[in-house]
Amino acid sequence: MTFDPTARRWVRVVARGGYVVVVLLATLTHFHYDPNPAMVASRWRHALVFATAGSDVVDAARNVLLFTGFGAVWLVTSPRSHAWQRVVWITLVGCALSACVETAQLFSATRTSSVNDVTTNTLGALLGAAGLVAMVRVFAWLRRRATVAGVPLVTIAVSYWCAMGAEMFSPLYRHGMNPWSGGSIANRLANALRYVKPFAIARVSITDMALFAPGGAVMQAALVELGIGSGVAAVAVIVAGGVFAFAVEIAHGIAGQPIEVSAIVGHTLAVAIGAVAAWRWGVSDTARGDERRRARILAVALAVLLVAWAWRPFLPRVSWQAVRSQVTAPHLTPLGVLGMTSDLFGVMDVAEQFFLYVSVGLVLAAWPLRYRGKLANVLPGVYLALVLEVGQILVLSRTFDVTDLLTQCAAVVVGFVAARRAGCEARGELLGRQPEGRSGGTGAPGDELPLVHVGP
After folding, report:
1. Count of CB atoms within 10 A of residue 232's CB?
2. How many of the other CB atoms lie within 10 Å of CB of 12?
3. 126 and 73 in one domain?
4. Mean pLDDT over all residues of the chain?
5. What span, in angstroms and rounded, lies between the C-alpha atoms of 429 and 445?
6. Are residues 82 and 184 in the same domain?
7. Would you state the pLDDT for residue 286?
8. Residue 256 near residue 188, CB atoms below 8 Å
9. Domain for residue 218, yes or no?
10. Could you tell me if 110 and 100 are in contact, meaning their C-beta atoms sit under 8 angstroms apart?
11. 297 occurs within a structural domain
């Protein structure tokens, strides 16, 4: 029997109820009751008008993000059967919840009701549920090709590239805004092109290069695993990396920040270095050792990269006051810190956390550290997320945010459950000894370790 962390009723109730509480906290905080009929009528008329200002676009992105999590959590905690019917049902539930919240906000002097919110919330619930169903189907199609470490490397690569894209769009160390950056997309692009910063070697981020090079390596290895020649895969990754870096930097400029040629060059070079390294050494290294050993290397690499993403620039906060400033009500309230921003960059940071940690759940589904006990199933991923996010309280220029922690833990669970529902069984304990007479599996059909019970 395969372990499913959402199979028990109390888990489903707590997960769904908890997420509804998160939605209410995010949408009804600072609710000041005002039942004046004239004001309620005025708010109702305003709520029926579609708004397209810049702040409304940011609100829409936040709403989609919030309810994407809602849709994913509800689908993860639903039975496996009739998946697309459940997507429709979850979308309707998300719409109903949003409509109730927006109706309640009609009686608030400080909150704003809008048909925009109902629309974007419903869209988010649909995307979360449908996206998870699609993820399961794709993983099920790819899992027989997982010949390197028991996990389709392309799923790891795509999720890591999504995290890279979020970081390119919302870089940690670049916060300047272009003047006069409002207006339509065309006007924003024209304005951004006026403030393009030319190439300067000093502006190339070594930190970004260190984080993005593994993305080039894992994508090259993923293409090789799919049957593409090693050299062709490396060239394809380099070209794709350049196009990707250019496109995201342009989008970054449209969002209001300066376009930097140095960033495009640095990101492209990082991906190229990773792809060439995998081309030069990846095949021979992959051919040596057993599957368990390669899975261990993948798991350790993921953990080290997550430490680097979370704790850069590895400088401590030196004052107690600075540490205390990271433990306030907004930091401990879901979407509390995100709600204090007026741009898309906070939204991208939350998305980045999801894409970084979903790979942890995928790896643990195939290779749990232990079958039972405190290191079983998804628990190591949750521990890692907790340590790294709480540790940011002590790291200079980083911000502790319970929203990130919830997102990271949810991503681990989503990745784990999606892999298991796609038919991925535990191939062995990652920390266990290799059974005698076995090489750890090659990924070929029939070569898996015997299916064991991995429940508590």
Report:
1. 13
2. 17
3. yes
4. 84
5. 19
6. no
7. 46
8. yes
9. yes
10. no
11. no
**Bigger pLDDT: 148 vs 245:** 245
pLDDT of residue 52: 58
CA-based nearest residue to 371, from 380, 362, 359: 380
List the beta bridge partners of residue 260. 197
Mean pLDDT across 328-344: 72
Residues 230 and 343 in one domain: no
Residues 113-129: b if buried by 16+ CB within 10 A, e if exposed: bbebbbbbbbbbbbbbb
- Spatial CA neighbour of 346 closest among 204, 208, 203, 166: 166
What residue numbers bound the domain in which 335 lies? 311-456
Q: Which of 163-177, 233-247, 302-316, 358-372 has the least mean pLDDT?
A: 163-177
CB–CB of 312/207 below 8 Å? yes
Q: In this predicted model, which residue has the larger pLDDT, 337 or 114? A: 114
* Residue 33 bridge partners (DSSP): 108
Max mean pLDDT among 179-188, 310-319, 379-388 falls in 379-388
User: At residue 155, does pLDDT exceed 70?
Assistant: yes
* C-alpha closest to that of 233 among 147, 289, 153, 167: 153
Residue 297 to residue 176: CA distance in whole angstroms: 38
238 and 151 in a common domain: yes
Amino acid at 76: V
